[in-house]
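User: Teach me something about this protein's shape.
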Amino acid sequence: MRKKALHKTTLFLLSLTAIIVFSITACNSKILWLRPAKIGSTIVQTDQSSLQKSAATKIVSHALGQVEIPVHPQRIVVLDGSFFLDPLLALAIKPVGAATCPYCIKSDTLNQFVADIPLVGHWEQPSLEKILSLKPDLIVGHIWQKQYYTLLSAIAPTVMIDTDSEVDFKKNLKYLAAILDRSDRAEEILAEYNERIQKFRQQLGEKLKTKTVSVLHLYGSGPTVHVYGSDFAPYGQVMIDAGIPLIPAYKKLKGYLEVSLEALPDWDADILFIDVLRETDSEKLESLSFLKQPIWSTLKAVQNDRVYAVSWASTVVGPITANQLINDLYRYFANIDEDQ
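Assistant: First, the predicted structure itself:
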């Protein structure tokens, strides 16, 4: 999972081609839960009713078994500063602490919500001392962090979520909502998301019927080219929901696949998105040596000037960032000429 995590959590915008910003009514979302003012802190309240709520407990199942947690936890610590933060913030829950990825660039979309959340160390080596100092009543982590489970459980009830076998932002949202007694809220969030998806399909579906789309990820100093299946990256879920016509090769792809330069034509499309995954990778790629490879110029998307730089695999991690991706899809596809 560490290799997966390395692929999923970083950000860099590489300027490959000019993008015309297309203003469209549907992009002006009225989703109230995206507003920072709607997201409250989980810090314990002093009134007696809140204390009584936090004292009640229930048994929940998670990736490592079962655990007794508060029915209404008031001080949640998450061991990932993006993947768990996004759905919790959407549910109007603000954790009191979060682990971070020090070599990753943070999501601009989430920054407005999380700037004041205390850090509890590296997500691959969280600080038990810092977590203990925050006096959490619930800790949420990935199953690939299970080596810390016993120690974390000695601090507070700990729930580990399986993100190794599947990356599903809707499933993750529903699970967190269920254990935190906010399932109604989750259903409202997904209903609003689905409404936006349907509106996108109605407005741009016909235009996209004649197009094909591909997403390539540049990774490492070589660089190495990877492609991700829709089960591996939440952005893939959003693109499929939105009816984005990904090339057929994606249908059979599970997880991720390393692609040789010689095989690039197999992943060519009318519209090509390039995702640079890590900050260090972006620094190594500043010379754009990869784009000077002879085979690059043979790609249809390159010849038609339909190559766009994105950071979706790094930043689309939950319902908040999924809605931001819908905005991005309008920007990229609203100005596509049907006849090109």
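Now, about its shape. The longest helix spans residues 183-208. The chain is about 35% helix and 20% strand. If you'd like, I can walk through any region in more detail.
User: That's plenty for now, thanks!
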